[in-house]
Amino acid sequence: MHWFTQLFLLALGLGVALQAWLLWRHRRHVWAHRDQVPAAFSGAISLQEHQKAADYTIARIRLAGFELALGAMLLLAWTLGGGLGWLSRLWQNTGLDPLPGGTAFILSVFLIMGLLDIPTAAWRTFVLEARFGFNRTTPARFMTDLLLQTLLLLAIGGPLAWVLLWVMGSVGPLWWLAAWAVWVGFILLMTWAYPTLIAPLFNRFKPLDDPELRRRIQQLLARCGFTSKGIFVMDGSRRSSHGNAYFTGLGKSKRIVFFDTLLESLSADEMEAVLAHELGHFKKKHVLQRMVTMSLASLAGLALLGWLYQQTWFYAALGVDRPSDAAALMLFLLVIPVFGQFLQPLSAWLMRRQEFEADDYAIKRTSPEAMIQALVKLYRENASTLTPDPLYSAFHDSHPPAPVRIGHISTRTSTPHA
To answer: Which CA distances in Å does 200 have to 192, 195, 203, 244?
Structure first.
C-alpha cells in the first residue's frame, strides 16, 4: 500500500474517531444536564423549554453520527473504491476534449453527491425538524429548492469549472496563482450578486414596513457610520420557524435582512441590539478578516495542488488510474477536508473571539439588557442547548455557549445573567 494511501486512511480514521468521540461527549453532557435549567437562566427559560432544547440537540447528534459514518464510506467509495476513477474514464471514453469532458466530469460528481444527500436532507427537514415543530417546508417547495440548486450548479459551477480547468491546462507552471485570482474574483462576484440575483430565487424580500423600527434602525446606522442599500424582511417562515438576521452583499449592494420569524419574537429594543451586533462584525472588520483568511488558505491550497497534480502517485494512491486536471481537482476537493478538520478548533476559537468583540461593540451602542434578552429568546425559540459539552463546543461552535456569551456581556455591565 502506498504511503499516501496509508496517510489518508490514518487521517480519515483518526478524524472519524475524534468526531464520534466528540459527539458521544456532547450527547452525554447534554443528557446529564437535561433535567435542570442552568441557574443563570432559571427565570427566563422553563424546564420544559430546556428539555426540548436537550432533546432537539440529541436528535441532531444522532443524525450527525449517521452522516459522519455515511460520509466516510462515500469518501472511500469515491477514492479507494474507484468511483472517481470510473466516472473519469467514462467521460474520457466519450471522445470529448479534455476541457468539456473535464467540466462534465466535475459537474456529474457534484450532481451525484447532491442526489446521495437528498435522503438525509429530507429526513432532517420532514422528520427531525418537523418533530420539534420547526419545519414549515412542503414537499413541493423542497423539490423546487433542489431543482433551483441544480440549475445554479450548472449555470454557475459549470463556467467556473471550465475556467479553472482552462487555467490549469494553458497558463503554465504558475497556473495555481492564476487560478487563485479567478477564485477570489468569483467569491467577490458572488458576494456582490447574491443579494439581488440569487437569494430572491429562493425567498421573497420586502422592505421593512414598520415605521418606528425603521426609524430606530436608521438612527443606529447613522450612529455607527454604516450605509446600506436597504432594510429587508425575508419570508423565512415559508421553510422554518427558526429566526435569524444577517448582512449580505458587498460595497453599495450591502443590505440588512431580518427573517420575518425574528420580527415576530423580538421587541424593537432587542432587534436594535441584534442589528448592532451584526454591525460590530463590519466595524471590527471581521468580514474582511474572514475573506482575507479564506483567500490565503485557498492560495496555500492551490499551491499545494499545483505540486500534487504533477505527481502520478497522488492519483494512484487515491484510486484514480488515469491522471487528468479534472481528476486532480476533484481528488483535492474531496481529500483536503480530511486533513483540514484538525484545524477546526483554531478556526472556531477565532470566530468565537470575533463574536465577543461584536457583542462588546453592540452593548456600547444599544441596551445591554436588550441584548441579553434577545439572546435568551433566540436560544429558547431555536431550541439551542444551554449546556453543550465544552470540548465539543470548542471544536465545533463558531458562537460561544449561551452561559459564556451572556456572562461575558454581564461582566461589562451591571446586568445579571438573565
So the answer is: 14, 7, 5, 17
**What is the structure's pLDDT at 366?**
86
User: What's this model's pTM, rounded to 2 decimal places?
Assistant: 0.89
Cα(207)–Cα(217) distance, integer angstroms: 13
| C-alpha–C-alpha distance, residues 395 and 192, integer Å | 31
Q: Which residues 6+ apart lie within 8 Å of 134 measured at CB?
A: 240, 241, 242, 383
3-state helix, strand, coil in the chain (%, to 5): 75, 5, 20
Which of left, alpha, beta for 228 (phi over 0: left; psi -120 to 50: alpha)?
beta
Round to whole Å and give the CA distance between 170 and 182.
Answer: 14
pLDDT digits (tens, 9 = 90+) for 31-69: 999 999 988 788 888 999 999 999 999 999 999 999 999
Mean pLDDT of 355-383: 88
Bridge partners, residue 256, by sequence: 231, 247
By three-state DSSP, how is residue 27 classified?
Answer: helix
Report the residue count for the chain. Answer: 418
> Strand, coil or helix: what is 314?
helix
CA 64 to chain centre: 15
Identify the band that residue 415 occupies on the pLDDT scale cut at 50, 70 and 90: very low
Q: How far apart are CA 65 and CA 392, in angstroms?
A: 13
Residues 6+ positions from 191 with CB-CB distance below 8 Å: 248, 249, 250
pLDDT digits (tens, 9 = 90+) for 23-33: 999 999 999 99
Secondary structure (DSSP) of 109-121: HHHHHHHHHHHHH
The active-site residue out of 270, 355, 359, 381 is: 359
Give yes or no: 235 in active site: no
Max CA pair span of the chain: 72
Q: Which residues pair with 240 in a beta bridge?
A: 135
- Strand pairing report for 205-207 and 231-234: antiparallel
Q: Does residue 359 have an active-site annotation? A: yes
And the C-alpha cell for 241? 420557524
17 residue type, one letter: A
Set 129, 270, 272, 278: catalytic member: 278
